[in-house]
Amino acid sequence: MKREELVEYLDELLQPAKFRDYCPNGLQVEGRAEVVRVVAGVTASQALLDAAVARGADAVLVHHGYFWKGEDGRVTGIRRQRLKTLLGHDINLFVYHLPLDAHPELGNNAQLASRLGWQPTGRFGEQDIAWLGDVGAPTTAGRLAEQIAAGLARQPLLIGEAQRPLRRLGWCTGGAQGYFEQAIALGVDAFISGEISEQTVHLARESGVAYLACGHHATERYGVAALAEHLAARCGLQCEFVDVDNPV
C-alpha cells in the first residue's frame, strides 16, 4: 500500500481534523513510500522502534507519538536516538491520539467497554472523549475490580467501599482523572480511568462514588491493537501488535 493511501485511509477512518489535540495526528515521521509490514504499539518508545526494526517493519502505528505541546523541541538525547532509528531504517511513524480514544468502534474507550462487557449509553467531557454506560447485571465495586483485573491482567487501585452497589459507570482510558468530577455530577456509581491524582482520592471518599485506576498503558492497549487488526483485514497489510510492558 502506498504511504499516501494509508494516510488518506486512516485520516478518513479516524477524522483527526475534528479534534483539538496535544500533538499532531497522522504521519509524524516520513519513511519509505511503500507500506507492507506494520508494527503497532501504545507508545513510540525505543523498545517498540527496535522491535519494528527487528521485524523489518515499514511503519510503526501508535497512540502516543512525539511533538507534544509544551515539549522542548530540540533533537537531542533520547529524542535524537528515536528519530535516528526511524529515519535510519526509513520507517514511517503514524500517530493517532484523541481520535483513537474517541472512535466508536476501534477506540480505546469502545474497546475497553467491549472487553469488559459494559454497555455504552452516552458521552461526556471535552470533545465527548469520556463515556457513560451500564455494567449490565448489578454488581459491586469489589466485583468490578475483580472483573477488571481478570480482563486487563492488572490489579486496579480501588478507592471506595468494595461492597458499594454499582450499575452506572463513567470511564475514560489513560490520564483522564480530570473527568471524575463531571462523572460524579452525571450520577455514575463508579468512574474508571488509567491514572489517579492525589485529589481524586478525596473526591471519591467525599462523594461516595468509587474510582478505579487501572493503568494508563493497560487501558490503552486495545484501541491500537484493534486498529492494526482492522488494517490487516481491510487493507491487506501485515500488522503485528507488540505490547511493550509498562506497569504504569
Q: How does this model look, in words?
A:
This protein is an alpha/beta fold and about 250 residues long. The protein has 2 domains: about 5-100, Udp-n-acetylmuramoylalanyl-d-glutamate--2,6- Diaminopimelate Ligase, Chain: A, domain 1; about 105-215, NIF3 (NGG1p interacting factor 3)-like (Udp-n-acetylmuramoylalanyl-d-glutamate--2,6- Diaminopimelate Ligase, Chain: A, domain 1). Helix content is about 40%, strand content about 25%. It has 10 helices and 11 strands. It has helices at about 5-15, 45-55, 75-90, 100, 110-115, 140-150, 180-185, 200-205, 215-220, 220-235, and strands spanning about 25-30, 35-45, 60-65, 90-95, 120-125, 130-140, 155-160, 165-170, 190-195, 210-215, 240. The strands form 2 sheets. It has a 6-stranded mixed sheet with strand order 5-6-8-9-10-7. Helix 2 packs parallel to helix 3 (about 75-90) and helix 5 (about 110-115) crosses helix 10 (about 220-235).
Summarize the structure.
The strands form two sheets. Strands 5-6-8-9-10-7 form a six-stranded mixed β-sheet. It is built from ten helices and eleven strands.
Which key features would you list for this structure?
single chain, Udp-n-acetylmuramoylalanyl-d-glutamate--2,6- Diaminopimelate Ligase, Chain: A, domain 1, 2 domains, six-stranded mixed β-sheet, five-stranded mixed β-sheet, 10 helices, 11 strands, elongated
The biggest sheet, with number of strands, parallel, antiparallel or mixed sense and barrel status, is: 6 strands, mixed
Strand content: 15-25%
| Strand segment tally | 11
CATH topology of the largest domain: Udp-n-acetylmuramoylalanyl-d-glutamate--2,6- Diaminopimelate Ligase, Chain: A, domain 1
CATH homology superfamily name of the largest domain? NIF3 (NGG1p interacting factor 3)-like
Morphology: elongated
Which runs of at least 5 residues are low in confidence (pLDDT < 50)?
A: none
Helix content percent band: 25-40%
Q: Structural class given helices, strands, pairing?
A: alpha/beta
What is the H-and-E element order? HEEHEHEHHEEHEEHEHEHHE
- Number of contiguous helices: 10
Question: What is the class of the largest domain in the CATH system?
Answer: Alpha Beta
Number of domains: 2
Strand order of the largest sheet: 5-6-8-9-10-7
The name of the CATH architecture of the largest domain is 3-Layer(aba) Sandwich
First-to-last CA distance: 35 Å
Average of the residue pLDDT scores:
97
Give the radius of gyration.
Answer: 19 Å
